[in-house]
Write a structure and sequence with these properties.
- The chain is an alpha/beta fold and 266 residues long.
- It has two domains: 6-157, Rossmann fold (3-Layer(aba) Sandwich); 165-263, Orthogonal Bundle (ProC C-terminal domain-like fold), CATH 1.10.3730.
- 54% of the residues lie in helices and 13% in strands.
- The chain is built from eleven helices and eight strands.
- It has an eight-stranded mixed β-sheet, sandwiched between helices.
- α1 links the parallel β1 and β2 (33-36).
- α7 runs antiparallel to α11 (245-263).
- It is elongated.
- 30% of the residues are buried.
């Protein structure tokens, strides 16, 4: 894959993170990655590092094997209209655009081009993304998985779960951030200054997730290791449940899911 020519069409924050990550992890060489953007000035540092850049999407597609679609949903139709005559069955098209299905893309460019959907989250910027990918094209899935494996964890799912993956994996970043904010506020109320409270909350959250990942255990197993009879932890957990902690979180997740489902049917 290192020799593949990769075009990233619409190099905003996400496209930039993908470009930097795959080069940093040795998946691709900078000179084999071409970035497109209407204004190239924000990409000057990447150009200095050896990345190619262009304002011409057609030039990028013509010189690539793998094409990543990283534009806004409202921009996709014009983009595909601009480059579709250059796309061939030898290309692999990877879309990271929220709410756009493979069938939506096929309706614009035809059935002959391999297409994969990928849904990373903002932790891709530090190589810790949870990226869900979906496609009926086996070879395309393998290539896409290798690409995003360098940027965190990947999971192959059915495309009909992609909206749920967007909520749980992408919106989920915000949900966990809100917990960190609340935990920090609690720490301040107990006497820590905000910087120390936030550090404790962040490292504890990281450790909790790492325990489940490393042990391949259920969260309740790890909870049982912390709670003792008549202890402060179980009392705090029970109070949170009495106040609807788990229920509120599930309701929030489902509200986001219903919203994204409605957006795609409007």
């Amino acid at each position: 894959m290192e020799k593949n020519k990769i075009a990233i069409l619409g190099t905003g924050n996400l496209g930039r993170s993908i470009a930097e990550g795959i080069v940093d992890k040795g998946v691709a060489k900078a000179e084999n990655v071409i970035l497109t953007k209407r204004d190239l000035s924000p990409l000057s540092d990447l150009i200095d590092q050896g990345f190619k850049a262009s304002v011409d999407n057609r030039e990028a597609v013509a010189g690539s094997d793998i094409v990543l679609l990283c534009v806004q949903p409202s921009q996709l139709s014009n983009l595909l209209g601009e480059v579709k005559d250059l796309l061939t069955k030898e290309h692999l098209l990877i879309s990271v655009i929220t709410g756009i299905s493979i069938s939506d893309i096929k309706a614009k460019i035809g059935d002959s081009i391999p297409i994969v959907r990928a849904m990373p989250n903002t932790a891709i910027a530090i190589g810790e993304s949870m990226t869900c990918i979906a496609s009926e094209n086996t070879e395309g899935l393998e290539v896409t998985k290798k690409l995003f494996d360098a940027l965190g964890q990947t999971l192959v799912i059915e495309e009909n779960l992609m909206q749920a993956a967007t909520v749980l994996g992408a919106s989920g970043i915000a949900f966990f951030m809100r917990y960190l904010r609340a935990a920090t506020q609690g720490g301040v109320q107990m006497g820590f200054d905000s910087k120390d409270a936030q550090l404790i909350a962040m490292q504890t959250a990281k450790g909790a997730a790492s325990l489940v990942l490393e042990h391949q255990s259920h969260p309740e197993v790890e909870i049982d290791k912390v709670t003792t009879p008549m202890g402060c932890t179980i009392e705090g957990l029970n109070e949170m449940e009495h106040k609807g902690f788990s229920s509120a979180l599930i309701q929030g997740i489902m509200t986001s899911f219903l919203r994204i489902t409605k957006m795609n049917t409007d």
